[in-house]
Each structure stands twice: as C-alpha cells, then as structure tokens.
Design goal:
By secondary structure, the protein is α+β, with helices and mostly antiparallel strands. It has 11 helices and 25 strands.
C-alpha cells in the first residue's frame, strides 16, 4: 500500500476517534419528541374521553365509577383492572415516531376534531395529560398528538385499545365476588319450591348434602360436582346489562317463582343470586337476567352459564365408574377390539403377562401404566340410564370392552361396555356401561371403547424427540448452548 494512502487512512482514523469521543450520546437538535409527565397510578383521579367515544371515569373512595357525560347522575361501578390498564398503557408512550406537523393532514390521520378521540387524564393536582388518538397506525399502534399541537406521532403500543371503549365496556362485569374456601354452605332453591343444601367440609373441596336430605336408593353424592358448582358461582361475569323497562322484574321473570342460589360465608355474610326466566331459544343462544340481592343492577348471563346454576339433586350424582388408589393397584386387565392386555405389579415396576409374546421392538413404559390407571380412576359416565336394562339388552353378556382392576385384599373391580345406548345428545354416540361400583346402568362416550381398543399401544414407550441435522434437537435452539448440549447428550444416552 502506498505511503500516501497509509497517511490518509491514519488521519481518517484520528478524526473518527475525535468524533466518537466528542459526539452526544443522542442527537436531539431538530428532532420532534412527544414527552409526557410520569404518572403515578395512585394519584390519577379521572380519565375523560370525548369525541369518538364519550365516557368519564372518576375515582370515588377506593374504587372507580364510570358515567355517561350525557347522563351524569347515573353512575356505574367501573372495572378497576381496565382503568389501571389504561393508565399503565399511557405510561408506555415513550419516544413515538414523528410523522408530520402539517395541520392540513390531521384529518387524514383522524386526529381532527371530527374524528379524533380526546383523552384527558387528571392526576395529583398537576397539569392534566391531554392527548388525541386517531386511526390505527401501520404495523399496529395508533397515530396520536398532544392536544393543542399539530405534531403527529405513531405509537406502537396498547394505548388505543385500552381506552377506546364505550361506557358499558368500562363497567365492572363481575357479578359476585366470592372465595370458594370461605363458603360454609350453598342453598339451591328451584322455581318449583324445592330446596337443596350443600355443606362445605373442613378441608377445601369437601362437600356433603345437608343432614336429612332425601335421596333415591343407591344415590352417590359427588363432592367434585359440588366444588365445580361453587367455583362457577364464585366466578360469574355478566355478558351484558339490562336497563329501564327491560330490567323490570315483570320483564325478566323475577317477579314470580324463579330459581335462586344462596351462598352463606363462614363469617355469617350471605349472597343471593336470582335467576330470571329461561329463554325459549332451544339452541342455547339466548340470555338470562340475573340479579343479586342488595344490588339494583340487573345483569345478563349466557343461557349456558345460567343453566349451570339451575342444579337439582340429580345433577350432583357421582357418575364415577371405578374407585381405587392407583398406587395400590397390583393388576390391570384391558380387553377391547379383540385385544387383551394384562399388566402386573412386579416389585416397584410393572410387567406385561398378556399377550405372552410381545411385538418385536416393543418396550413397556411404566409411567404409561400410571397414566392409564389415573384415567380410569377419573372416568365418569355421561349419564345414568333410567329404568331396568338387562345384560342381554345392553350387550353386556359379551361386552365390547372390559376393564378389571385388582387391589390386594379387595374384590376385583370391573367395568363392562356394551351396545350403543339410545338417548345420546345429537351428533354423539354412547355405549351402555355397568361396573361393580353399584347396580345401575350408565352411558359412556364411544371414545372410551376406542381408547381401550388401542391395547398395547397404551403402554408402549414412546420414541424420544427426533434430532435435526447436525445432531441438534429441534425446539432447543433458544436454550443456552451448554444446557442444550447436556440435554441432547442425555436424550442420546436414552436411545
């Protein structure tokens, strides 16, 4: 390289060092910025939306209310999570991209008085934060500007969808606020005048029928079904709200006999939920009016959700077909689709004794035995079959599927599946089922037989995940290299 070239490169390097050493970390001269004051969520007292939306959110006591500016005397409880989310989203507006400062282009970005959404946030006695939000920006986000300024910015964040809501969208939709573990009892009253009381036990999830409850012969109560009912009640959220004439008891069906649920808490408090008239729609698409004692608001629930609260004694029947503790099982036999599989406990492991000759390459996975036992323990019938059905009528003399569970020192438990059971819901297929748990006949989904028919496949050791080219396992690319190498080595060792 020529000497002149070397001198020139050296001079350039010296100048570059001087520039890097003396330049500002961020060049700010001539750059348009949108700077907002830092908001303390606890100090925010009001959010006012005007223009494209009209709603005022105001802090009252420890909570928030929302009002329609056109009806300032009507207050509704606001969802505090939504309000906090909007305030947090406002705090995320930092260094948005400058777009233009030409006033004639405000209408193009829907930031003019005709289409803009004006947001005013009051906090702690300081100057209010006032923004105008326009149409959606490219690549997500929204165009916005400060009120009184023509500088347009593109903000990539959640602010727009956090605040662009109607009054009813801000309203609190949680109908009741209950903690299941603090319930002492639930009283279900039907419009027919019947009453059913569920008592909470000493431990979470334990429920029983109140002493003296009349039950059919052989009835088994499901504590699990009662727990699910309590959880549904405690997490009720409104689909919508009813106002004016539509909310009148005469219109909702709450004026006459109706279903209700009374929740009593351990501290003596009581919450009563009243369910309005069942809609005529047969497809479950209608809604049901709901009112809570002490709350003037009338809510709407989807028909399906309301139906989950209209429970009767029969809905708390235990439909379990087998009862055992998986760790105490010593032998399991499955028979379906012409296949028979028997697995026997051997020490701390399991051994397949039937079929005696296993397919080439078959390897038992002990954990799969535990998984199938857990599935059988939790298996529930879809319904109880009413009336007397003989083994011959149900196809149980030569069952389509058979399960035998042996626990040392106890009688063998069996489950038999038979012919197709009539009365299944449209589009589904059910089979007759009978087990040694009681003398009743049940129906189960056809999928139970299909699963049992897999035979040995239920207990087969699965192949480890495949490796991509070059020896790396797919899906581990994001892990640190040393961790990935260790996992890959362990998996290869197990092949």
């Amino acid at each position: 390289m020529k000497r002149g070239t070397l001198i020139a490169l050296g001079a350039f390097a010296v100048l570059l060092v001087l520039v890097l050493a003396t330049r500002e970390r961020q060049v700010s001269v001539g750059v348009r910025k949108l700077e907002l004051p830092k908001l303390d969520k606890a100090q925010v007292t009001e959010l006012e939306l005007t223009g494209a939306r009209n709603a005022t959110l105001r802090k009252e006591g420890e909570g928030w209310i929302v009002v329609d500016p056109g009806k300032p005397d009507t207050k509704y409880t606001a969802d505090e999570n939504l309000v906090n989310g909007a305030i947090e989203a406002l705090g995320e507006v930092k260094n948005p991209d400058f777009v233009t400062d030409r006033a004639e282009r405000l209408a193009e970005y829907e930031l003019d008085d005709a289409k803009g959404l004006k947001l005013k946030v009051s906090h702690g006695g300081g100057p209010a934060v006032e923004l105008v939000l326009g149409k959606a920006a490219r690549n997500g986000g929204v165009y916005l500007r400060k009120a009184g300024s023509n500088d347009v910015f593109a903000h990539q964040g959640r602010l727009d969808w956090s605040v662009r809501k109607e009054v009813k969208d801000w309203r609190k939709r949680q109908i009741v606020a209950l903690e299941v573990d603090k319930l002492s009892q639930l009283v279900l009253r039907s419009k027919e005048g019947e009453s059913l009381t569920l008592k909470a036990g000493a431990n979470p999830g334990e429920w029983s029928l109140a002493e003296g409850t009349q039950t059919p012969a052989g009835f088994r109560f499901s504590s699990q079904a009662a727990q699910q009912f309590a959880q549904q009640l405690a997490s009720l959220y409104a689909q919508d709200f009813l106002e004016g004439d539509a909310a009148a008891d005469s219109a909702t069906g709450l004026a006459g006999a109706h279903d209700s649920v009374e929740a009593q808490l351990k501290d003596g408090k009581k919450v009563v939920v009243h369910l309005g008239r069942q809609p005529e729609a047969k497809d479950g698409s209608g809604s049901v009016a709901v009112r809570v004692e002490g709350d003037a608001q009338v809510y709407q629930l989807p028909q399906y959700t309301a139906s989950q609260l209209r429970k009767r004694l029969v809905d708390f029947r235990d439909l379990g077909l087998l009862r055992f503790e998986p760790q105490k099982v010593s032998k399991l036999k499955l028979q379906a689709g012409g296949k028979t599989v028997v697995v026997v406990k051997e020490g701390e492991g399991w051994k397949i004794t039937e079929p005696q000759k296993l397919p080439d390459g078959f390897e038992l996975e002990p954990s799969q035995v535990g998984m199938q036992l857990a599935w059988l323990r939790d298996l529930r019938a879809t319904r109880l079959v009413e009336g007397q059905v003989s083994d011959g009528q149900a196809g149980l003399t030569s069952p389509a599927a058979l399960v035998e569970v042996t626990v040392e020192g106890e009688p063998v438990q069996t489950l038999r599946l038979g012919k197709e059971a009539p009365g299944a819901a449209s589009g589904t297929k059910e089979l007759y089922a009978r087990s040694t748990i009681d003398a009743f006949t049940y129906a189960v989904g056809e999928g139970v037989r299909a699963r049992l028919a897999q035979g040995l496949e239920l207990f087969k050791r699965r192949a480890p995940p495949s490796f991509a080219g070059g020896g790396q396992m797919q899906g581990l690319d994001s892990l640190p290299p040393d961790v990935r190498r260790q996992l890959e080595a362990q998996l290869r060792a197990g092949q």
